[in-house]
């Protein structure tokens, strides 16, 4: 046998001859590593879920909403002022470079009635471009055309939830429904985008021109038509920050805001939201990992505890080894390798355990899980490090034993 | 081989001191078979610990194979134990969870590395070739002591120290152990120092050293 293998073989036999104790020693590490792996994978999975959902809403999407009005430094509620107009949207489309599409949006809550079913729904008036801006796919039927928009046709595209509520199993296409005092024909149903964040499943889309006939659209003091928001898409290859700066400058000029006055509108880009979400979920994931790491630390203290007991229990063995000529570092290395072996095994079992937990959590469909290799490598090396760190003192204790006293002990 | 000169060993006992050895002077030549006898508390175990480099004398000089070892550090002493000295204990001191073979291999573990062939040969020499894979709990007292002897001789040390090797054995096994030790001594050029209570066993040796109150009381040639 090669000489450098001897300490490994010695440590290994120390482990397998005390199977139950070895198992109990590493249990803390197993649980700690499993917790780290599974919690981190859930965190990463949740992040991936949210980013994917944002991606379906259009990652180059920018939304402008009315901002909080501020009078003498007293700020009102966000969106509480009617500052954005259809004319603003037209000006942006005409004057700002680097935009693909610009859509003024006006929405209002309306009572919608079909036969005996009725519901209060958010009805949104949009131009036909809106389909492209929001990546809207239709489950059936079609979106309204430029022609229908121009003549203010009273047609509607329903969110999947709305369609299910109003029509149940029946096909809603070409059916009529009453919206306020108007009769509107259903021409399309949107594909479900999944619930939660900004889901369009609960909305009804109609041409903005039709919307203006159905509800009285307010006007500003200058006579411009107020809108709820303006959606735009940034064209491929243009710089988000430059475009947003141009839009801000244009709106400030149009709204005649002095240099010391805050913006009376808010610009939100999906890219920013994605970055914010990434940062927030990243922090959450780290926090989960940190909590799990505490159990790893506790596991490490358990290793030290058992190693100290093990040294006590094997005092005679240490005495025999010393009588046979073992030097202090021989004993020290033997116990240190034993501790590192144990925690390495604990780490590997923990990775397997965490993987299984992540797999089952992912299978429930509540949240996806992503086990990333860097976390696996990190937690296994951290467990070995814990073995070396917490095994250091017991091993040193063992190496310092007096051989005569050690031989005399029971 | 061994030269002790005016060796003392003093243990602090609270405020007083316990003088276990009070000036022991002794010569043992290479290849000698020596018995050390004495009542309990006479200091013979302490002397064996000193001879075996497990402990250091408080004062005096110990020359082992021409080298002064009484002032060496624990690492160097361990080095001497690993290649020059084989121990045989009264209580065998085998590792209970290892097989006979693994226990013998342990004798080489700190003396240059494990060598299975040599370990098997050593077990053959003590007549245990059919018990290689038995654990100590599956062996009789005499067999355990034979494993311990194999462990001591496997590295071919010039000095073997035996601390009452037959003390825990019945008279028949004891006689077997003594004959093995004697044949080892006569076949190899090994120096053997043995502590014993049993005057009958001491008769097998070439010289008997009587210790009393930490001093050499008298020596007799057999």
Provide a short characterization of the protein structure.
Chain A has 410 residues and is of the alpha+beta class.
Could you please describe the fold and organization of this structure?
The complex is a heterodimer of chains A (410) and B (222). With 410 residues, chain A is of the alpha+beta class. Chain A has two domains: 5-53 and 275-408, no CATH class; 82-263, no CATH class. Chain A is built from 13 helices and twelve strands. Chain B is of the alpha/beta class. Chain B has a single domain, classed as Rossmann fold. Chain B is built from seven helices and ten strands. Chain B has helices at 44-51, 74-84, 100-109, 116-125, 141-153, 171-187, 199-202, and strands at residues 2-13, 16-28, 33-37, 59-64, 67-68, 85-88, 159-163, 191-195, 207-212, 215-221. In chain B, the strands form two sheets. In chain B, strands 6-7-8-3-9-10 form a six-stranded mixed β-sheet, with helices on both faces. In chain B, a hairpin with a 2-residue loop joins strand 1 (2-13) and strand 2 (16-28). Chain B is globular, with a radius of gyration of 17 Å. The model of chain B has no long low-confidence stretch (mean pLDDT 92). The A-B interface holds A 1-3, 6, 9-10, 13, 17, 316-317, 319-328, 330, 403-404, 407 and B 49, 52, 54-55, 74-75, 78-83, 85, 87, 89, 93-95, 97-98, 102, 106-107, 109-116, 151.
